[in-house]
Design a protein that fits this description.
This protein has two helices and 13 strands, in the order H-E-E-E-E-E-E-E-E-E-E-E-H-E-E. By secondary structure, the protein is mainly beta. The strands form four sheets. A four-stranded antiparallel beta sheet has the order 1-2-3-4, with no helix packed on it. A hairpin with a 3-residue loop joins strand 5 and strand 6. It is elongated and about 135 Å long. Keywords: Signal.
Length: 402
Amino acid sequence: MSLLLSLALLAAPAVAQPPAAQIGLDTAGACRRVTLRDPAKAGPDKAVALGCVGTDGQFRPNLFSPDGKTNAVSPGATGISRAGEYNYFSTEVLSDRVSQTVPTSGQSSKVNGINSLLNFGGPGTRGGRHAIKGTLVQLAPTEADNPDRNYVGVQGQSVSTTGDGGTPQTPRGAYFGMSSITQIRARSRNLLNATAFESNVDTEPGSTLLFRSGIQIADHVGARGSAFDAALSISGLNGRTLGAKNAVLIGSQNGGNALGPDSTVLRVTDSPVLENGFYAPDTIFTGYLLRSKFTALNDTGLSLLKPNAALELGSQETPGTPYVDLHSSGRATDYDARIIASGGTGKTGGGTVTVVAASINLPKVLLAMPLHVHPDNAAAIADGDPVGQVYRTATGVLMVRY
């Protein structure tokens, strides 16, 4: 450096530096406040609380910004992670042994790993609310050798490695991967909707996919429940006897049709053999078991009201004797009268219908062919009539040879 340049630098006027920010620590308190003071500012913005230091010497950061928002932003990462999971933000409770009870009643309550409370409402409030929101957005395809292509907006897990001290006589512990509750208090009137869990799948026209479902239950069953076991369970809680009007409701209550002209209400595609279909052995249906526009099935009858309606019994592959049993005496007999089909030549109308009954009464019916006339069953036997053969007495009463 030249002498002239050195002299010029020495002679240059000094540049004023702004006052340095200062960090202060309170001297007392259960958690001593740590404050950042900016001498260049005035008013409430002069000091910003960074957090506090507890009696254990640990620093607890204050994440709240002056505008009431909490912002934690990660720029993202690249590279290879060898861990089971990679967490951008993580909170871990390594040992929880809190004895949590409600002091006024002694009843148990919950210990929360993370709690989010959003109180809202009042003058000037607008817009919907999410107490917790998780959004996962894919901006580009992943690598071709990606071994895990399951992408989840919100994941909940509940794991037990020890059980909760229960016995076969006194089981203990109920575990839920996710739980959703909507509570409507008595003063809340004229509401539009109360739903504990809503699932919306939005597939835009032009997109293509192999599998679409509103709710998917993918069980990994290694043991069944000893009292109740179900992929989908619908029940009520104690204390109230008013049940849901419909266990399952399919309709347009949200503004659009759930099903189309080519839809099926219930379909089973996997197991070729099942023990039961619809099973309600202890239930009395005061209305319909099945009801459509032309079909009605209840505890007292079956109606098939469409033109050319038909009822078919028996197999078209294996020979058999399909039958209809009729009970009229009110007694525990196998049947009071039976209609049986047998035989057949492989051509339409080639089988035999046998009516097993003490008598057949056909008032005002003209038979197309004459019947044997016998005074009684013994005479029909002596004449060689087979069992089930219908014959007529001298007074016109139809009888069945037995």
